[in-house]
Amino acid sequence: MLKGAFWKNQASIPFRFTIIRANDQCASCSEPTMTRPFYAFTCRHFFHKDCLESEMKQEQDKYNSLVEKERILQKQLEKSTSLNWTPKKISGKLI
């Protein structure tokens, strides 16, 4: 989901160019950019293709995990609401 939105946003940016310098580094691994296939963005961020794909996979996994946690919490909320659950106090603290 995030990956598709990212590339769609990139495609909407008007054509521009950037100069790649020999000392430019990958924003992910800090190795020289031109040692492997890379992406260069107009904001002057450079990523090796494999580094960017790895970072996007990690972010997608985090996003998927958060969506799953939200789904579980929503189910718990619906269940507690349907059971007419009310908070109880023990030693002056709500539980």
From TrEMBL:
Domain of life here? Eukaryota
Name of the protein described by the UniProt record: RING-type domain-containing protein
Q: Does this UniProt record's set of keywords contain Coiled coil?
A: yes
Residues folding into a coiled coil are 49-76
Q: Domain named Pep3/Vps18 RING C-terminal: which ranges?
A: 23-83
Q: Which UniProt keywords apply?
A: Coiled coil
Q: Does the keyword Chaperone apply?
A: no
Where does this protein come from, organism-wise?
Onchocerca flexuosa
